[in-house]
Amino acid sequence: MSMREIEQLYRKMDVARYKPASPGMKAVVLLSGGMDSVVTLYLMKSIGWDVQSVSFNYGQSHSKENDAAASIASNMGIDHTVVNISQFLTVLTRGKTALTDHKINVPKMEDVKEGEIPITYVPLRNPLLLTIAAQLAFRDGASGIAFGANAIDYSGYPDCRPEFVTSFDIMVNLAVADTGSNFYVLAPIVNLTKAEIVKLGEYLGVPWELTWSCYRGGKEPCGDCPACVLRIKGFAEAGIKDAALKNEVSPTNIISSEHAASSTPSRRIDPEEDEQPGENTR
According to the model, what pLDDT value does residue 247 have? Predict the structure, then answer.
């Protein structure tokens, strides 16, 4: 990418809103091992946050994504915490999601109806994970809580939308009111396309070969689950080879951004409604 393209991308993100208000501010970044969370982690570090990462074992059918997260954190030389909530979340989501109920098959993207949230959605996962991340941030004196939510090329998950990010920011700060803690819940890539996320990650030096997005845990990504199709779409449209794939994958099931986000009208977070570090302080 040219520097002009990068500058345009940073302007689209309004990246100044996500910079720490002062040097050395700490941030806890949710790290799944997938492309969105890894790019978010690299971005947060690049704009001045002192980052640490947290991953979760919530009863997934495989360990590939958590293994990828650990590799990424080790490669960056940052503190990494793994929280095991598998027994808790597996029971609460039984029969509701293919990611924790192994009796439910992960669907192919072509089998997901337009406007339908796929069975890979884990109900209320992000509010739970963000709350645990906030507890970690509270313990360690961190102000930032960041995650790789995206509401453009995505599967329509309601807890990845900008309005959820804004609402959770308000809620978590009410929960710690008068304690001396103050959090900034940040989702800097929420309004980027998958292609733009790939280009940003390439610029930031993300080691794609260490990342894992596939919902299935085989030796190689399956290429047809919703996560794989969206990833293939992003790399294809960015014109960049995915270093995580040993073999070239034909993007036969690539979908449009309109299809990917059809179940959820998204809106941009208004900086005047949602104060962020680098602009104002609470």
Answer: 62
CB 263 within 8 A of CB 116: yes
Q: Side chain identity at 63, as an amino acid letter?
A: S
E runs forming strands in 136-177: 144-146
3-state secondary structure of 267: coil
125 part of a folded domain: yes
Q: 255 versus 125: which is more confidently predicted?
A: 125
Instruction: Quote the domain boundaries for residue 39.
Output: 3-260
User: Domain containing 173 — which CATH number?
Assistant: 3.40.50.620
Taking CA atoms, 79 is separated from 52, 189, 201, in Å, by 5, 23, 21
Work out how many domains the chain is built from and give that number: 1
Residue 14 lies in a domain: yes
Write the pLDDT tens digit of every residue in 26-39. 999 999 999 999 99
Within a domain: 37: yes
| Cα torsion angle, 123, 125, 126, 127, sign | positive
For the ranges 137-146, 169-178, 220-229, which has the lowest average pLDDT? 220-229
Angle between helices 125-140 and 162-175 (to 10 degrees): 40
**Averaged pLDDT for residues 166-192:** 97
Residue 254 pLDDT greater than 60, yes or no:
no
SS (H, E, C) 64-109: HHHHHHHHHHHHHCCCEEEEECHHHHHHHCCCCCCCCCCCCCCCCH
What span, in angstroms and rounded, lies between the C-alpha atoms of 158 and 229?
19
pLDDT-based confidence at residue 248 (cuts at 50, 70, 90)? low
pTM of structure: 0.84
- Please enumerate in sequence order all residues whose Cβ is within 8 A of that of 174, keeping only pairs 6 or more positions apart, or say none: none
Asked, for residue 59, whether it belongs to a domain, the answer is yes
Cα–Cα distances (Å) from 94 to 8, 103, 119, 123, 155, in that order, read 44, 9, 12, 10, 20
